[in-house]
Specification:
Largest sheet of chain A: 6 strands, parallel
Helix content of chain A: 40-55%
Structural class of chain A: alpha/beta
Distance between the termini of chain A: 77 Å
Order of helices and strands of chain A: HHHHEHEHEHEEHEHEHEHEEHEE
Shape of chain A: elongated
Strand order of the largest sheet of chain A: 2-1-3-4-5-11
Largest interface: A-B, 36 and 36 residues
Radius of gyration of chain A: 24 Å
Oligomer: homodimer
DNA sequence: TCGCTTCAGTGATACGGTTCAGTGAACCGC
DNA sequence: GCGGTTCACTGAACCGTATCACTGAAGCGA
């Protein structure tokens, strides 16, 4: 390419990035580029500049349909900013999460967006030090930029709604977590249940529809709760499956409350009443934060996402 | 790293890839590596070797839930083979597909897996020449490796089932395609409809649930078809949404047949009767083919995927 | 006209590996 | 004991771009 124009490689490099060149040289380079169908090699560029244009996206579990939507949205948003997303799936496993985070760093990504499985894991601060990180959903001890959910509000919305409609015995279906019992969302559930005088039982579910269904079957034993509060819509889908297998009607025999608002939730029968986290807003915020941080901007911004309640038909009025 | 061991960089390079070294040197390198927490720089490696370890995944439209599942599965499968997936979304747009394919090549991916939006586009042969390509679903004029669906069988399964249950007036909901009216799947529909003596109307839907719903509303006018055959489960979900809005019951007023078998299809009410393409088999085959091709193996293998019919409750027996 | 600044472009070096030709030593059979 | 292989390793070139220090020329006011 340098010899094609008769210029020095340096001049070409400058021209291609519109930097410190005369109009004529610019034109000469442009012409040669189109002629040769030339495209700068991103690999060499990355080696020399230290920036790959890649953003790592480390998902908690892509079994979760809502997280799939999130990944698709983020990937698209990053592409619009001329970056590529490198999507990895921790499958709900903290050890795997740790390994993948390391691999992403080894891949020299310019930044990362993560949905921590274990936000208390000790490797996070160190990681945030070496590469810009944006955490979604859970806070990373203040060492990263964050798009956090106001889980306190979300839980309150859900539980108050259930209580208002007369539910007192409630099962909470939550993804199996790392052993961090003080995880904020869970703390809020306990606190709110106490405040509202609810009789609560927590059931954990591994990832995937099958696991959620199995967990739901445990929760829905005879004489069990009148309502199930699921910490993701995907888990709620498992409750629908379990109810069908057990011959229980929703919301006749048991009410279901979700958390996310995935597009499919409106299509079930009955529609799933759920907490809407405005996925578009989250996607935009995450993309904006990580782009800014990767470009050398602020690395610790914080965006708080507010939920709304989306009433459909899966919660029965017992009053 | 070279100086840490006192060896030449070449020896280290060989050792790290377990090539042509004595046991002792091997050990020395290994020790130094753990000591320094050394990790080879994939960028430099890519520049020197010409192989990035990345496989491009170019999806037709990630609005489609089944394609999301496919992307997740492939991404996971590739990671197990020590490769990374670079996932891009053509959003059903042939022009965009062309641009993204080019971008993937510019990124120096070692191979690509594509679900062509426009399999007849003229750039494919040229692309397949310069990088190993595996096509999923549609054939790329024999220039690439392929995991093709036996759409003839799939269409036959679906339409024969509808006919056996007494349906004669059928609407076909198919994604808007590039202007390739001779697309194999569509050809089969026409041929089979003729063979079975069905009265058929084709309605196209843009991508996404909203667009599918809108298209379904057009198809479900009064006095319309007794059954709708959707060319993806995602589109069928749009029919469920439209039916709900129009106050029509499934399968009472209209029967629905899908094509894919996405996990959610079993959760709807009624469950969606659909053509099951065995997504796991497709994922495994695609990963295997692209890995082999990227490693310099065969570039034109062909795997044909056979469908089965998954009867649930969305097709009414009119006989 | 002189000295100073600004600008376009050059040459060299760096990035961190891979790869190829080549070298000395050990090993082989005859 | 000798030519020929094989083995383990080295030195050097190379991948394609970015960047820094520098040069020659042009533009400027005094």
């Amino acid at each position: 390419m340098a010899k094609a124009t008769g210029l020095s490689p340096a001049a070409v490099s400058y021209a291609l990035r519109g930097l410190q060149v005369s109009e004529e040289t610019m034109e000469r380079v442009r012409a040669a580029a189109t002629e040769l169908g030339y495209e700068a090699d991103p690999i060499a560029r990355a080696l020399a500049s230290g920036r790959t244009g890649m953003i790592g996206l480390l998902c908690g579990s892509l079994e979760d349909l809502w997280q799939q939507s999130l990944a698709v949205g983020i990937s698209r948003g990053l592409r619009e900013k001329d970056r590529y997303a490198l999507i990895l799936d921790a499958v709900g496993d903290p050890a795997r999460e740790r390994a993948l985070a390391q691999q992403l760093r080894d891949q020299r990504v310019d930044g990362m967006i993560v949905q921590p499985v274990d936000p208390a894991a000790p490797f996070w601060p160190e990681l945030c030090e070496s590469v810009p990180v944006v955490a979604i959903g859970d806070s990373l001890a203040g060492t990263a930029a964050e798009v956090v959910f106001d889980n306190r509000s979300g839980v309150t919305l859900a539980l108050e709604h259930l209580r208002e409609l007369g539910h007192r015995r409630i099962a909470v279906l939550t993804p199996t977590r790392a052993s961090t019992p003080d995880r904020p969302a869970d703390v809020h559930v306990t606190a709110e249940a106490e405040r509202l005088g609810l009789d609560m039982e927590v059931v954990t579910a591994a990832h995937g529809l099958a696991a959620a269904t199995e967990a739901a079957q445990r929760a829905l034993r005879p004489g069990g709760p009148t309502a199930v509060f699921c910490f993701s819509d995907s888990i709620a889908y498992g409750v629908y499956a379990a109810a069908r297998e057990l011959g229980l009607s929703i919301p006749g025999d048991v009410s279901v409350m979700g958390y996310d608002d995935h597009p499919m939730s409106g299509l079930l029968t009955p529609g799933l009443t759920t907490v809407d986290w405005n996925i578009d807003g989250i996607v935009k915020a995450a993309v904006r934060l990580v782009s800014a941080a990767a470009d050398g901007g602020a690395r610790r911004r914080r965006v708080v996402q507010k939920p709304t309640l989306k009433e459909r038909g899966s919660v029965r009025d017992l009053t």
